[in-house]
Structures are given as C-alpha cells and as structure tokens.
Amino acid sequence: MTRQTTIACYTFPGFHPSHLNRQIFGTAWSEYVLMRGARPWFPGHNQPRVPALGELDESQPATWELYNDLASRHGVDVFIHDWYWFDGQPAMHEALESGFLRSSNREKMKFAIMWTNHDWPTWIETRRPDGSYHRPCAARSPSHSPAEVYRSMAYAVARYLHDPNYWRIDGKPVIVIFWPFGEVEECRRLLDDLRDLARRMGHEGIHFHAAHGGLLTDRLAERGFDSYAHYNPLGDVSNHRPIEEEVIDYPTLAAQIAETYWPRWNALHPLPFFPTISPGFDWTPRMLPRVRPAGPSDRNRWPGCTILKNDTPAAFGSFVRSALDFLDANRTDPRVVVIGCWNEWTEGHYLLPDLTYGYGKLQALAAALDLDAETGRNLGNTVPGNR
Asked: Where do the structural domains in the chain lie, given as residue ranges?
C-alpha cells in the first residue's frame, strides 16, 4: 500500500459569462463559442469536442455541485482555480466566487488558487488577404510592478486562505504561481512578505508552488518556492518531438514525459517535484483551420499548433499510473500528482465527460487510484488524499 497521495486538478475560468470577456467580446460570450465553431482539420480529428453534460455555466453553484460530486468520486482531492488580476482587480473569478464557493457540497473538495500572471489573449483569429493568420494583441496584461504583484496576492491571502477547505501542505495554505517573476532577491522578498502577512492573519505561513515557467527558472529555491511542477507538460514537450510528426501520438508523448522529462525536471531544483499529467492537448478550437501545404511534413508549417491523437481513457490511465510509480520511485514527500486540467476544452485537456469517451477518463483515474467510481470508496491498494 502506497502512502497518501493527493490529486490536485487545475480549473480554467473560460466557461462562464464574465465581466472581462463581456468587455472584450460582448454579452454572454465564453469559450463554448469557440468549441461550437471547431471543425476537424483532417480525417479522424476529434473535433468538435462536445460536453456530455452540456454547456454548463461555471459561475453557477449548481454546476460546481455536479463537479464536486464527480471529482470527489473519481479521485480528485483539490481544485486549483486559475486566478487572474487585471486593471487592479480580480478577473475571470466568477466561477470561483459565484460558483464553487457558493456550492452546497463544496466540503467534498479542497481548493486553492493559481496566481496566473500571463496575458489574457484575444482569442478571435482572422485570415489576411495573403493567406497568413493574425490574432490581435493581448486584450489584458498583468502589471509586473512589485507593488501590484504584492497587492494582488495580498488580496488573495486575505480573501481565501482562511477558508476551512483551502488546501494545505504541512499545515500551510498553498498558493500556486504560474510564472516566477522579477529578479531572484526581489521575488524572495515579496514571497517572504506575503508569508509574514499570512502569519499575522493566523496561518502557519504559505507553501508557494511554482508552475509552468518555474521548471526552467534557475535558483527556484532561492526565490522562495517550496515545490514545483508544470501546468501541462504535453504542450511544451511536444515541441521537442521530431518536426516531421505533424500530429503527435499521445501515448508516445506521455511515455517520453514519464521516462525522460520527469527525471530531468526532478533534478533541476532541491525541492519536491510533483509530476503533472494531462488528459490530452489540442488547441485548434482557438485557431482558424490551416491549409495543408504541399511538400515534406513539417509541424511548424502544418498544422502550426499542437494536436495530439489517441488520447484515449486507457492511455490516460497509464499516464496516471506512471505518475504514481514516479512518486514511489523517488519517495516524493509530500505525494502530489497534478492534473492539467479539469475543464480546458479549448486546449483539449479536460477530465469532464464528452461525447467521444463518455466518463472514460474519470473512470480511468479512479481505476488507477483503486477507487470505486460509483461510491468513491477505496478498494484497498492506494491511500488517496483528503478522503
């Protein structure tokens, strides 16, 4: 029997009407619009992805009551909510504030936030007369000034960390940071100031977890982080596959991540490394279909974005088991597996049921964790977290 394992899963706030998207795109716009417009780019391309539960409004408590039940029964312990701050205030936060935090059964799930400091894109792409493709510049960009970074995270510390269901590691509430910022000493001072603020509010400090760019940032421990992982490794590692692979095989890429990249990333920093797994990757819903040019295969020429094939429930289940094996082999403490993502339909990585595989990926997760997916009960071979 393995030691306790926590399964933490990102949630992306693109599937509800929000104040920010209302300003950019108009009333009631969400990324469901992009999904509806998606079409196959080649025979066998799994598009459009259609939610089996329908286009649920994630700013509604009833949506999260369904999500909380599904997630907890299939082995997810923590929802990590992507959390944005633009123009001096929270943005894209309605799914967390109006949805999850007001759901009647939210005690089933722990939650945390990921302070997400990347641009908010303008998703609508156009084709120029010469046949090239154009996407307007970012609709919003975060401020990188130390004062504004502190102000935004201090808001989050005061708003969320007191909640009894907030995720903690060794008694400390967890804040995930999408991309480490500033110079090393500047980053360290800011994180230490936030820890002091949290202590004054009655917490034991803060466990800062680095995601995405943190893997490539040197001196991550000196910056003040406590652990690191990756938001979705499939997209980045796909860039290192042979350029002749226009459409990449998901099982092959997942095996490469588990066998080559996790050990490499684990050696980067003297901190706990949490393996990240993902159910798939395909961001064609956010792009106009490309015309396939004549000549040799070249992924940069076509499709010009990452598309994975064969992202079946069985392949995902194998990826889950690889992550558990990695934790065993490296005696990682604490034992955390991160999943990107619960609901990012427009990038093709989601656990929610669709019309292609039904509940297959949720069931594959539960099976890998030795859980009865109907009841959420442990079948005896693993010790899941928060149950």
From this structure: 4-384
